[in-house]
TrEMBL record:
Residues 107-445 form the GS catalytic domain. Keywords: ATP-binding, Ligase, Magnesium, Metal-binding, Nucleotide-binding. It is an enzyme of class 6 (ligase). One of its GO terms (biological process) is glutamine biosynthetic process. Its EC number is 6.3.1.2. GO terms for molecular function: ATP binding; glutamine synthetase activity; metal ion binding. Coiled coil: none annotated. This is Glutamine synthetase 2. It comes from Microbacterium terrae.
Length: 445
């Protein structure tokens, strides 16, 4: 760590860095930033930077508001969009109390706790997210809703189109920040794009997702458009998911791989999927944390609505992707429920905890879904045991408040804050009169 700190201090001097932004995340997943002068960085490494935690959503109770942000030198990067004028760098922070204890409501610490539990069982947790978002002409919208930058579709090449240049610029910026990109392409909705980040351990991935969202927003501003990670910004168009591929490794060995097993999926992998399925409803208020998230889940267009798994079945909640011959390291499972607006630290902490619980308790994996689950009737789905996922945020909160796994993984303070905050959101949503009601009822009744 000292070597890493020396490297940071040396780089700041050599590159003429004028500002260093310290980044951390609140419980909902909003990025927080405070800029310090280069001269303050050494002190921040040694003692942390004090701030009022009670002013940040869910971070502390008001009577214990003093917190310290400790920059993690391994996350140091120069921010490419700041250019050569006043070069600016950033580091993610771990949040502690003044006596040096990890702040219980720091989402990064929640994930670190889950990863430590996995490490005790001999596992490292790797994730690879496919992040979808919409590019709109602006953040304002008329009676027809938001206006996308194009009307292209899945994998379309749009000559001279905004999205083309946008993706190229974004990918280059991400690579400059040390974030490897695997694919980028136009998605199914008008103005919808997807950029997939390369496999990394879950903590690095969560940090990368927070950086990714900032990069996308910055590039959009630069190009005169607006980027949104809202799960379902347009009626009748696909929602934006964050399908995440996951695997556990024991040292250099992929614990999900077993040669000769069905789909080359080991017993550990099967128990892990069973854990994801059994606890999916309880995790839903975190993996799909907004009222709008459920418009994506129940709006068709490849979002999973039912609790089941399948091999290469895109209508299932958990998918086992096609096996690549002679590539045992590539065995993985894909969780398709997560949307692009989730707090990645909390969501990955829960997905890992659910999978580990499945392994510990040796949960039995139900039969796989071979059909297109959306095209079945309700009676057929019931007969096959494909239970619906929560239909609304309110429904998801009912599952969450009964969940020992979620309470234990998030810790009491984060658990209670999420419930409180999300109940308030549901209350506000439920009490409004919508355009739909006025159009349907006003003249008729």
């Amino acid at each position: 760590m000292d070597k890493q700190r020396d490297f940071v201090l040396r780089t700041i001097e050599e590159r003429g860095v004028k500002f260093v932004r310290l980044w951390f995340t609140d419980v909902i997943g909003t990025l927080k930033s405070v800029a310090i002068a280069p001269a303050e960085v050494e002190g921040a490494f040694g003692e942390g930077l004090g701030f009022d935690g009670s002013a940040i959503e869910g971070l502390t109770r008001s009577y214990e508001s003093d917190l310290l942000a400790h920059p993690d030198p391994t996350t140091f990067q120069i921010l490419p969009w700041r250019g050569e004028i006043d070069p600016t760098a950033r580091m993610f922070c771990d949040i502690t109390t003044p006596d040096g204890q990890p702040a219980v409501a720091d989402p990064r610490h929640v994930l670190k706790r889950s990863l430590a539990k996995a490490a005790d069982a001999g596992f490292t947790f790797y994730t690879h997210p496919e992040i979808e978002f919409y590019l709109l002409k602006s953040s304002s919208f008329g009676p027809d809703g938001p206006e996308p930058v194009d009307s292209a579709g899945y994998f379309d090449n749009v000559p001279g189109g905004t999205a083309h240049d946008f993706r190229r610029r974004s990918v280059r910026m991400l690579e400059d920040l040390g974030i490897s990109v695997e694919f980028s392409h136009h998605e199914g909705g008008p103005g919808q794009n997807e950029i997939d980040l390369r496999y990394a351990d879950a903590l690095a991935t969560a940090d990368n997702i927070m950086t990714f969202r900032t990069v996308i927003k910055e590039v959009a501003i630069e190009q005169g458009v607006y980027a949104t990670f809202m799960p379902k910004p347009m009626t009748g168009k696909p929602g934006s998911g964050m399908h995440t591929h996951m695997s556990l490794f024991e040292g250099d060995v992929n614990a999900f791989y077993e040669e000769g097993a069905q789909y080359q999926l080991s017993k550990v992998g099967r128990h892990f999927i069973a854990g994801l399925l059994r606890h999916a409803n309880e995790m839903s208020a975190v993996t799909n944390q907004f009222v709008n998230s459920y418009k994506r889940m129940w709006g068709g267009d490849e979002a999973p609505s039912f609790n089941c798994w399948g091999h290469n079945n895109r209508s299932a909640l958990v998918r086992v992707p096609m096996y690549k011959p002679n590539k045992g390291q590539s065995s993985r499972v894909e969780y398709r429920g997560l949307d692009s607006a989730a707090n990645p630290y909390l969501a990955y902490a829960l997905l890992l905890a659910a999978g580990l619980k499945g392994i510990e308790e040796e949960y039995e994996l139900p039969l796989e879904a071979e059909d297109n689950v959306w095209s079945l009737t309700d009676a057929e789905r019931r007969a096959l045991g494909y239970a619906p996922l929560p239909a609304s945020l309110d429904h998801a909160l009912e599952f969450m408040e009964e969940s020992e796994l979620v309470a234990e993984t998030l810790g009491e303070q984060v658990f209670n804050y999420v419930l409180l905050n999300k109940r308030r959101e549901w209350q506000e949503y439920r009490s409004q009169v919508t355009d739909y009601e006025l159009k349907s009822n006003l003249e008729m009744l």
